[in-house]
Amino acid sequence: MDTVALYLVLTRAHPELKTRRPKKEFLRLIGSVLEAGHARCGMFEMVQSSGDANDGGYGRWFYVPEKDEDKERALLIRALMPRQKRSETMKYKQYYWKPLDRISRWDPEDAL
Questions:
Q1: Cα–Cα nearest to 31, from 68, 5, 70, 66
Q2: Which residues contact 92 (CB under 8 A, 6 or more apart)?
Q3: What number of CA atoms fall less than 13 Å from residue 46's CA on the CB side?
Q4: Do 45 and 61 touch, CB atoms closer than 8 A?
């Protein structure tokens, strides 16, 4: 989940949070908490972008219950989480669709 999506979930659950701090500051705080969890024990991991643009500077994070220091919390969250995802889904992929050239209404071979 990226930090913007996490911010939206938090503010929907607790609307009063919007009045306490500006959105940019909350995004910075959420990112620093996730980075602290990653640095301390590795319970949060960030999915690296495959392209130059990194979602506006906000990476996508996921929780690793095996590395959580609080085993009781890890057991509870593991019970609520869906089954283990393939390692391929924990990688960022940039999809790009090339726009089509301008096409006419009828192709010449379709003419009567």
A1: 5
A2: 47, 48, 49, 50, 60
A3: 20
A4: yes
* Per-residue confidence (pLDDT) for residue 111, from 0 to 100: 64
Closest by Cα among 89, 88, 90, 94 to 55: 94
Tell me: the pLDDT tens digits for 27-73? 999 999 999 999 999 888 888 765 545 445 567 888 888 899 999 99
Distance CA 61, CA 48 (A): 9
Q: Looking at residue 100, what DSSP letter applies?
A: P
Tell me which of 102 and 11 has the higher pLDDT: 11
Contact 69, 63 (CB under 8 A): no
